[in-house]
Amino acid sequence: QLLQPHMLYVSTKQRGNGVLKHIRNVPFAFSKMVPDYIMSPTSCALFLSIKYHQLYSNYIHRRLGELKSDFKVRILLVLVDVEDNAKILLQLNAISVRNSMTMILAWTEKEAARYLESYKALNGKDASIIQRKEANNYVDQVAEFITATKPANKTDSANLLCHFSNVQAIIAASKDELSLCPGLGHVKVQKLHDAFHHPFSTHA
Amino acid sequence: MAGTKNKPKKPKKQKKALIPDGLLPAYLASAFGDLYEEDGLMVMARGLGWLNLLAAFCRFYGDVQDGYLSLLKEENPNEKRTKPPLVMVLGMKDTECAALTSLLETWGTPHELQPTILTNENGGSDDRRELYSRGGVFCITSRILIVDLLTKTVSPDEIEGMMVTHADQVTNDSTSAFIIRIFTSLKQREKCFIKAITGRPEGLAMGFNKVDKTLKALQVRNLFLYPRFHEHVKQELEVGQPDLEELHQPLSPLMSEIQLALVSAVQACLRELKRSTPFVEWQNSELSIENCVTTSFDRMITKQLEKDWHRLKPETKQLSQDLRTLRTLFQSLIQYDCIKFYSFINSIKTMSASSRRPSMWLLTPAAEVMFKKAKERMYTIKKGKPTAKVPNPVSRLRRVLEENPKWMLLKNVLLEIKEEESKHSQGKRFAPTILVMCKDAQTTQILKTYLYEGKDQLMLDRWHRWLITNNDRSKNFVNGKIPEETRLLAEEEGSVGLKLKHSNQDRRANAKKRQLNTVPDFLRKRRRIALEKGRNGAFSSTEDREREAVLEEALEEVEHQYESKPAAASKRDLVAEGNQLEEEMYQTSFIEEPRIVIKSLSSVEADEGASLLQDVMPDYVILYDSDVAFIRSLEVYSAMNPIEDRKLKIYFLIFSASAEDKVFRKNLEREQKAFVDLIEHKQKMPPPVLNTEATQECREAILHGSIGGTYAGGSLPLAFDTRRAKGINKNDIRRDIAVDVREFRAALPSILHQGGMRLAPVTLTVGDFVLSSVHCIERKSISDLFGSLASGRLYTQAEAMSKYYKVPALLIEFDPSKSFCLQNSNDMGLDIKMDSICSKLVILTLHFPKLRILWSKSPHETLELFKTLKQNHDEVDVDKAVEIGRSDSIEALLTTEGDGEEEEEDQINEAARDMLLRLPGVNVNNARKIMRECESLAELSRMSRQELRNIAGPLAGQKLFSFFRQNLKST
């Protein structure tokens, strides 16, 4: 069966699933197939509602059995539609690990639909959005640097920068000078000063 | 120790000898007795000196000759121990440790009896083992102690007892409780002691049955309460009640207008906040002016938002951030001078303009009013009316430079005292000492300068500095087009500069004159206060003299103004200090002259008020800013040091409209109520049930035999156990988990341990928990998840886990007290947004198909999950887990260079390393080189462009160089 690259394929078994009416951002087509959804040649998803699972606990095992391992990304999309779900979640966590499925929880049909859309739409996208990016704005860069020291926050960073006007001056400042900056208490001053002036490693 | 209960009076007597008489008030001695005789939780009112109590215990247990050990010997002649008992003090903050040490020092405790302070910086576990074996009192962080207990660096058998400070913060899942659980379950309860102290009764009075839970977590039965209205306390303190005078100072008209503007800005923020969060049920968020000023409303709001924090839009988060900023503005308005306030609000404006989401309130009319009025406090521009003759009249700038009204009040009080003194000065030998307490180092600085140099000098100086920084931005305007205001300001800079120059010359000339006929040096008594550890705070003596001269001048001027005595021999010395203990404190005291000491409340945070007062011995105290704890310390001091024929006099300076005193009274009420509740509760409280039988963990270990034998006796050196057990107990329940030591800050390890898991605390490079040879888990709380997805940290972690483990997993752990969901579906919108959590998770799972996502509703669920996952898998090989990924990491660099031994994570300056990695251009690869070539961040920041290029690479070097040197104003 040839897949059309822009299409999200939905198993005919999923007809009537409330999730489908929320899929708007990608086109989808029904097809007879083993997984519930096929997002790309290498990724597929099974859908499970916890309510359903409570009634038919064997269902998911059967489906998992049918699913062949020719997909690289195997998503188990779980709709959390039951309040008392701790025990079932524990089970599902274990099932997904055992069957090499990646479990995604969605709390509403809309959210579940959004995940499916996203898997389709973002397939092949690079990971830059979740990779470390260097802030290009000077203020943000400084904020990132300063906030690496735990109790210091963005406001402190901003205040420091305003007070000393550049990073070299901040680092060179004595503890007294640092504590004259608004918002910096004893603890923060101590921590920052230590981080700046203590050697990277006492060992070397 | 068995006989202690029979001799209840003993310890008191013993203690009396230990601590120099008169240093500890009688109620503390009785508190000592209570807590010594029976384990329990001691709740003290603020400022009554819980730290002194702790110090008494430290001294008692540390002293071999006269302390606890001699007591034991007295009771039991067969007692042969010679080294002091090993006592652990948990929960101390750094500042408190320092205060404890200095307090003991003033009691004359020899150095070798001082408690040892163990923090992350003191060496590895072997060093600690050595230290422990010598015995004594240790102030230790709970994270180190738990790791040492689990790795058997110290065994519970060696530990004589625990002292837990800030005990109100101990909960069943906290690390301290974890420690106590291990400690008590492996040791017979009768043979050890647990004594808990807290100075925050409110912490125990909130929530349902908080006291019972805390007592249970601490494993103690007794609750001792020492409120301010405790009979002993009352009796003692009411002897020498100090004289208190409250002085109310109204805000200046401009200040009240600014305050009003701030209130409406807060209200605007709140309206917006409520509009954007329809799903939050807001409680008592109606803010009147009074509420705005008095309550920490921002915290109240954040608390209500917290539950849904991850569902909030960035705009909403910005709003809550703004509220926090606004509250600090209320504070800075009354705390600082007009110039500082103006530059503060200006910097907020600048930062906001350069950030992605500008603050909404800055655009409101209220903000406009605020900026206008704040400027009017500094200067006004008077425009001449255009007349027929002069169509473009010259505008004139008028300096206003409004001073903080409290300064004047302070000065008046000082003058009043002086006058008072001069009336009574006949026949007295010592000049009075005046202690001025203000909020923080900054205020100290300002007050010092104010009193030294007078208002005009101080304000002109600041004004000039402000003009310099403010004006240079506009220098690049084309000449003809300068706006009037800018031109006037530039002119002002010139004239102020000139004026300052003159007055400085005058000052210098004056100083010189003074130097000629100055007081001979031998009259100058310089003494360094014992507790101040001197380093390099050297005042040059000429500078000292100069300041004196200046001060004299300033005070003379004031005296003329008030027509008191002719300005003959009036000298006052000021000793002002920042909140650094290291700073040397000189007191230059001239006979007959009042001595003024300015101190900041933040420097006596750690319950050190008492020792400060003992050092300074003031006759007058001026509370420029107030604090309940410090006032109590004053009462204690006054009761213990009655001054003949006169009482300690306290002046209380309050801004009347700003409701400072309301905050103060509210705090008092809260504490009082907490105590009343606790007393009531204590009367009907059922005795707490302590689990004297072994914990589940031990039971299970015993039940399943085999390794139980080694295990029940103590905790584990797990690596040995598993290797021995491997292959023998195939069907045993798997219980071993390698846990990264950093995870011990969270509750999960404690819960895992309670659930029968055996934990090996190690430094893991990859993952937080390793369950088996295949399972590696990175745990993220919701906020961590969002944060690490944004920072890219999670990507790196997933990458590493996928590289080394067959089943890498991201554990998303929800907080049971917050809502169980990731995002608000109403906020999802119609389109796929790249920066939504949904897209990020999708990207993550697409890039790491092997990565499993585990969802857990609470740490307790996580425990069950771990148990399930571990079934049918090999136990983790801890050594291997530690080794994994090391060669790729930064740590590797530091360890391979040395002797190749395993290094403790603690020896690396973690904070500096994290900061280094966040510098632009720095990545793991060049970070190694940087750390090898360069000693510290300070050194790095001073390097030349070429040096940086050499060690970080050409591109990164350039980036680093400009990062360090770039100026905010030039961007």
Q: Can you describe this structure?
A:
Chain A is 41% helix and 15% strand. With 204 residues, chain A is α/β, with parallel strands linked by helices. Chain A has a six-stranded mixed β-sheet with strand order 2-1-3-4-5-6, sandwiched between helices. In chain B, helix 28 links the parallel strand 18 and strand 19 (758-762). At the A-B interface, strand 5, helix 3, strand 6, helix 4 and helix 5 of A face helix 15, helix 16, helix 19, helix 30 and helix 31 of B.
Strand order of the largest sheet of chain A: 2-1-3-4-5-6
Envelope shape of chain A: elongated
- Quickly give the structural class of chain B: alpha/beta
Number of helices of chain B: 39
**Rg of chain B, nearest Å:** 32 Å
What is the first-to-last residue Cα distance of chain A? 62 Å
- Order of secondary-structure elements of chain A: EEEEHHEHEHHHHHH
Beta content of chain A comes to 15-25%
Give the structural class of chain A.
alpha/beta
Subcellular location (chain B): Nucleus
Pfam family, one (chain B): ERCC4
GO cellular component, one term (chain B): nucleotide-excision repair factor 1 complex
Main location (chain B): nucleus
Layout of strands and helices, then pairs:
The complex is a heterodimer of chains A (204) and B (971).
Chain A: E1 8-11, E2 28-31, E3 37-40, E4 43-49, H1 50-55, H2 59-66, E5 73-79, H3 86-98, E6 102-106, H4 109-121, H5 138-146, H6 154-164, H7 167-172, H8 175-179, H9 186-197
Parallel strand pairs in A: 1-2, 4-5, 5-6
Antiparallel strand pairs in A: 1-3, 3-4
Chain B: H1 10-18, H2 26-37, E1 40-44, H3 50-62, H4 68-75, E2 86-90, H5 94-106, E3 116-118, H6 125-133, E4 136-140, H7 142-150, E5 159-164, H8 175-185, E6 193-198, H9 202-205, H10 210-218, E7 222-226, H11 231-237, E8 243-249, H12 253-276, H13 289-294, H14 297-306, H15 314-335, H16 338-354, H17 365-376, E9 379-382, E10 396-399, H18 405-424, E11 433-438, H19 441-471, H20 484-516, E12 525-528, H21 541-562, E13 573-576, E14 586-589, E15 595-600, H22 609-616, E16 620-623, H23 628-640, E17 649-655, H24 660-684, H25 696-703, H26 708-712, H27 718-725, E18 736-740, H28 748-754, E19 758-762, E20 769-770, E21 775-781, H29 782-791, H30 793-804, E22 807-813, H31 837-847, E23 852-856, H32 859-870, H33 878-883, H34 890-897, H35 910-917, H36 924-933, H37 937-942, H38 945-952, H39 954-965
Parallel strand pairs in B: 1-6, 1-7, 2-4, 2-5, 3-4, 5-6, 8-17, 11-15, 11-16, 13-15, 16-17, 18-19, 21-22, 22-23
Antiparallel strand pairs in B: 9-10, 12-14, 18-20, 20-21
Helix pairs in contact in B: 1-2, 2-3, 3-5, 7-8, 12-15, 12-17, 14-15, 19-20, 19-21, 20-21, 22-23, 38-39
